[in-house]
Task: inverse folding
């Protein structure tokens, strides 16, 4: 994943404290996401999205219908490789797990692609 961030000024840093989540809140959400992945992958040799082979991601745990169109266009344009496509799908699964969705939709796939391509924020 790649992401480029603009430098943050002192005023923005101080103001951001009002909106930032605590480390405890983020850790709890990550633990819940890992639990979702482990539950989904129960009965398999894998516990994490990063461990699932690409063939299984496409066959057994495919994102919602139509969700891969944005990724397929990027593949056709040469923006990502076939291996990159699998990695983006893994990230989309992680985003879905973090947000409590049953599987990635077009939105999670688009966000994951943006992270992979290093879209500026």
Result:
């Amino acid at each position: 994943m790649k992401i480029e961030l603009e430098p943050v000024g002192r005023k923005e840093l101080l103001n951001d404290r009002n909106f930032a989540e605590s480390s405890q809140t983020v850790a709890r959400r990550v633990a819940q996401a890992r639990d979702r992945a482990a539950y989904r992958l129960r009965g398999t040799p894998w516990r994490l999205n990063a461990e699932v082979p690409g063939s299984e991601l496409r066959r057994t745990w495919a994102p919602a219908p139509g969700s891969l169109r944005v990724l397929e266009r990027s593949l056709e344009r040469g923006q990502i490789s076939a291996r990159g496509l699998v990695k983006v799908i893994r990230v989309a699964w992680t985003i879905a797990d973090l947000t409590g969705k049953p599987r990635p939709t077009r939105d999670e796939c688009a966000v994951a692609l943006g992270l992979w391509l290093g879209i500026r924020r």
About this structure: Helices lie at 10-16, 23-40, 54-59, 69-76, 82-99, 106-117. The CA atoms of residues 67 and 105 lie 5 Å apart.
